[in-house]
User: Fold this.
Amino acid sequence: MSFPLVALQLLNGLQLGILLFLMSAGLTLVLGIMSFVNLMHGSLFMLGAYFSAATLNSTGSFLWAVVVGVAGTLVVGLILERIIFRKLYKRDHLYQVLATVGLILFFNEVVRMIWGSGAMSTSIPEFLQGTVQLFGLRYPVYRFAIIVTGLCVGLLLYILIHRTRIGILIRAGASNATMIASLGINIRRLNAGVVGLGAALAGLAGLMAAPFTSVQAGMGEPILIMTLVVIVTGGIGSVRGAFYGAIIVGLVDTVGRVFLPVLLRGFMEPLQAQTLSAAIASVLIYLVMAAVLALKPEGLFPVKHG
Amino acid sequence: MSALLQISDLYKSFRGIVATDRATLTVDKGELHALIGPNGAGKSTLVNQISGEIAPDSGSIVFDGDDITRWKAPKRAQAGLVRSYQITSVFNDMTALENVVMAVQARNRSHFGSWKDTMKDPSLTTPALEALELVDLAGQVDVPAGEMAHGGRRQLELAMAVALQPKLMLLDEPLAGMSQSESESMTRLLGRLKKEVTILLIEHDMQAVFALADRVTVLVAGRPIATGLPDEIRNSQLVKDAYLGEPEELL
Amino acid sequence: MLSFAVLPIVAHLIGESYFITYATRILIMALAAAGLNIALGYGGMISLGHALYLGLGAYAVGICAHHGIGNGWIQLLVALGVGGALACVLGLICLRTKGMAFIMITLAFAQMFYFLVVTLDDYGGDDGLPIAARSAFGGLNIENSTVFYYLSFAILVATLLFTARMVKARFGRVIRGCHSNHQRMQTLGYDTMRYRLAAYVISALICVIAGFLLANLVRFASPSYLMWIVSGELMVMVILGGMGTVMGPVVGAVVILLIEAVFANSSFGLSTELATFINDHWMAVLGIVVVLGTMLVEKGLYGSLPERRNRA
Assistant:
């Protein structure tokens, strides 16, 4: 177990964590401010991947792929907010779950209608190919770019939330939604904005993940569920919770899968170790979530409600 | 002198703001003890700590000989400490009778055994009907609570509390939002009830307070500043000063 | 109320084996939906993870059969025992949370078990586990489709009767009270956790039985039974069929499965291209129906029937 190997896994874990953070940040705000259970958030991730991959494959331009990927999901998010979400904010979570599940079904089929059932492949743009020297190992440029991009977005989000007027509204909304509504703030625009922001972030995550995941119908749901694990662990409505939660989940999942077999082989039969570690690794993040919930049901960094 | 409820040095603060400031209060068995105070005095917080919905930071609450400070709300209700809410809290989708049956049913420990339809079980419906009779709701027995008028819902709230056969009723502004005639009815009702059960009454309606109370405690900024007979309180300079800006209330 | 339930018998008399199998499938899904209805419709617990128990029931049959245990009673015992224990544990963890968190956590745990099952290569892993023969129940030969159909029917009816009695009895009222006004229940003196957990476990056990039957029906245990989409489908059946009514889940199951049967297979007299398009992508139709249904319907199909509205 050399240092470069450990560093490699830590970086991969961080990279997964960054993608999860992009997904979680937007969704946790939607949950915290509008109290809207948007389960089709994973579909936005999928659309981001499809839009960008299709654009890249047909135009060859990475720039256009990014633009279409992010703008496309932003538009879809805003439209959905306007015609569907908005009507459900006041209703019981049950109906929000139902409607968004219906949307998942719908978008999974639409994607199959347009691009077929098979996986769409797309490649890493040239200028992001290759490896870079990091901590004594050669790490893929692309994955490193994801980490850097994610951290920058995180920084921008931090500035937005803690240093701008809109940010104050967002934080106030996460803490006490009815209060800001009664202050006469244009709540509709704020809500649309939050959904739009979440959609754009999901689209960004999707387009970044496209080259190394299987771009096909239904790809959004596994990510969605991991995102929910992050949010529940970090604390609903808390972007800080989303960040730390995502990093934790990303690291635990990646490191767990790689090192658990090694750990278990130390004191059991190789075949046993293999099966057991595969089983545990696949559910490790859920066990972590369960442990956090057992001790702190509101999550690690809960938003204090006024 | 037998104290049914003894609150000692109760303290509660929320992120720096002191809501309950070392409150000490006694409610004697058989009395109707009114708790009054200007807005923001912390009456709600105090009530929630007594009912068990908020945990105090320090201090103790002793009820009928038991230290209930760490007891959860259901346990307190089972022990006979029953509350009603300022903002009516009933089962809107159930009829008035179903609501009160829900309360009557709570007297039992276990709810697993029986297959009988509760609404066809006289051991449950009879006491429920009696309670509804007591609060003058006999005519609205089959009306869904969500469709009742505000006054009726407050009466229902009271019926549910009564149906639990409490030792102490903690009534949080039962007259809230009522018209003059509704208030008078409710005051007469409370007058009847006080003969059967000890009551700690939180109220703003001074007419009712002075008509009903055996003793009055005044809460200001989380602390009881005076306790005594109604006339003593009415004439106390200390209390008048505390109500600065709201002198009409006491007259 | 039971008029709906009579229809399957009539359909059966036609005798085509495909219909019997399909009708049995509807009965089984109706059973699962009826199970979820207890936790969700009456108890207000929005569990997106009930597919877990469906899968558990199926795999209990599969794994037992795999190890040579073909006796239906033993398989059932294993299924209910493990299912009940798991429901207790998960219920205790999940019920400490509420609202959105509860929904998300139930979903996450169901997914966790999906992944767990997929890694069990010994039991088929991703491909699923074929089951050689249906459970042996001594005198009752359920290899016979008709017999199996009636067994499923009987179990469904029994469950519906159970539900109908339960919701009016003490326990059922407590559950409904917890849903209606949880805080009030607590200050009335009820130990709400105990009763909600019981409702959750009962609800789970019914789904386990449904899974048991499902595995027998298709002689297969698949990880796909545990997928979130199945939980979602059950939820759609319960809600759109009529939450908190006894027959609602049955209506919901019938409608959803009929939509599938119709849109996935028939041609509506349209050109072959268009018809095939609809057949291939019928799920989009389902998705739209669900979304529209949610936006428009308050009480569900069954709850909205005129004679029910007058009953209040």
Observations:
- The CA atoms of residues 119 and 216 of chain A lie 5 Å apart.
- The first strand of chain A starts at residue 131 and ends at 134.
